[in-house]
Amino acid sequence: MKVKRYIANDAQEAMLKVKAELGANAVILHSRKIKRPGLLNFFKKPLIEMVAAVEENEKDKRYSSKSENNGKNENDKNHEKKYAENVEGSHKIDALKKQVGNIESLLNSFIDKMDDYKEEDEPKRSVLFDKYYNHLIENNIEKSIAEKIMNIAKKQVSFSGENEEVIAKAIKIIIREYLATPNIINEDSKEQKNIVLVGPTGVGKTTTLAKLAAKFAIGKNKSVGLITADTYRIAAVEQLRTYSEILDVPIKVIYEPEEIQEAIEGFRDKDIILIDTAGRNHRSTEQLEEVRELISYINNPDIFLVISATTGYKDIISIIKSYDFIKDYHLLFTKLDEASGLGNILNAKILTNKKLSYVTTGQSVPDDIENANSEKIANTIVGESHE
Ligand SMILES: Nc1nc2c(ncn2[C@@H]2O[C@H](COP(=O)(O)OP(=O)(O)OP(=O)(O)O)[C@@H](O)[C@H]2O)c(=O)[nH]1
Ligand SMILES: [Mg+2]
């Protein structure tokens, strides 16, 4: 690893120096303001000291991830198509819903009583029930949650008789109720919104931030400002800067958590401020402490914990645990197009009891984002037919 120290007039100039010499994959280890030497310079703007490092062979790896992503694009299209088909399917389900409207209120009362449910009251599970139970497991729903869902659905069958359509419908309603009503950003709020995306590395925070910026700035004609606290990789700043140029929304880069206050102050005329953070290893308490510190400087932040729908259950638990220092946040799921099943959305929702918000379904900025829709997710999990 090559480590170098740079002094520059401002952060941007320092970044340029690092980039020119160490390349886009350089990692900023440290940056701080320093006083200019000499008495006469005492009142002048401070200089920036930046220490950066790069893996010696890192430059060669720069393009490999790009070609991988291109490969993914084809896949994305297929998954997106599948997802789109499920949307179409949801219209059919709407019609079905009317026919079995009374099931719904019945099930809701079961969900309320679910925690009193006693295992020994269970009738034996039939082949059809086993099939649906297995289907839920295959879609990454955690075992105990799948058990609960099937137990509630079973009650329904004792009213309606064992009929595949009724079971499927019942399961969809139960899942939908568990997922509850998502809560998206109210872009018409009179107060300025300070939106912060946090989460593990590589889940899609920056891409999602750009999608949201486009949604608000172009789609809703709001004034938007971007702030990035991710200065660990030069490429990360460049990534957001590129979006900022394309979308014509201003961007501010901060190097220390406390600088966020000044950056927000500078955006006081904006309706919405979107704040990107560096991907944090949820197993590193030190890295998480920085997130905690950053958030502590923001008034009324709207925090979104970004999780990839492809994450395994064990990691979901560990991610959720490591972010439990944040009292209030929303869940934002990415990469639905790549997930083998959407069960982890349900698992995370039940584990956290936080509201769902948006989901992302591909790499395209700004298109591949939508408001989370509990019914659509439930329909996707259960599917149309299992014959
Ligand atoms: N298939 C798919 N890929 C996505 C989605 N969202 C983001 N990506 C891709 O995931 C990769 C990482 O995205 P970033 O936005 O850089 O992720 P990040 O969380 O900001 O990463 P760090 O800042 O390094 O923690 C990129 O290749 C994105 O194109 C999505 O919904 N579906
Ligand atoms: Mg990022």
Give the topology, please:
Elements: E1 2-8, H1 11-22, E2 27-34, E3 47-54, H2 64-99, H3 101-113, H4 127-138, H5 143-160, H6 164-179, E4 193-198, H7 205-219, E5 224-228, H8 234-247, E6 251-253, H9 259-266, E7 272-276, H10 285-296, E8 301-308, H11 313-322, E9 330-334, H12 343-352, E10 355-360, E11 369-371, H13 374-382
Parallel strand pairs: 4-7, 4-8, 5-6, 5-7, 8-9, 9-10
Antiparallel strand pairs: 1-3, 2-3, 10-11
Guanosine-5'-triphosphate is lined by residues 69, 72, 76, 201-207, 230, 236, 278-279, 334-335, 337-338, 360-363, 368.
Question: Can you give a write-up of this model?
Answer:
This protein has helices spanning 11-22, 64-99, 101-113, 127-138, 143-160, 164-179, 205-219, 234-247, 259-266, 285-296, 313-322, 343-352, 374-382; strands at 2-8, 27-34, 47-54, 193-198, 224-228, 251-253, 272-276, 301-308, 330-334, 355-360, 369-371. The radius of gyration is 24 Å and the shape is elongated. The protein contains 13 helices and 11 strands. Helix 2 packs across helix 13. Helix content is 48%, strand content 17%. It has 387 residues and is α/β, with parallel strands linked by helices. The protein has an 8-stranded mixed β-sheet with strand order 6-5-7-4-8-9-10-11, with helices on both faces. A 3-stranded antiparallel β-sheet has the order 1-3-2. A hairpin with an 8-residue loop joins strand 10 and strand 11. The protein has 3 domains: 2-56; 91-181 and 374-387, no CATH class; 193-371, Rossmann fold (3-Layer(aba) Sandwich). Bound molecules: guanosine-5'-triphosphate and magnesium ion. Guanosine-5'-triphosphate (GTP) binds next to helix 2 and helix 7.
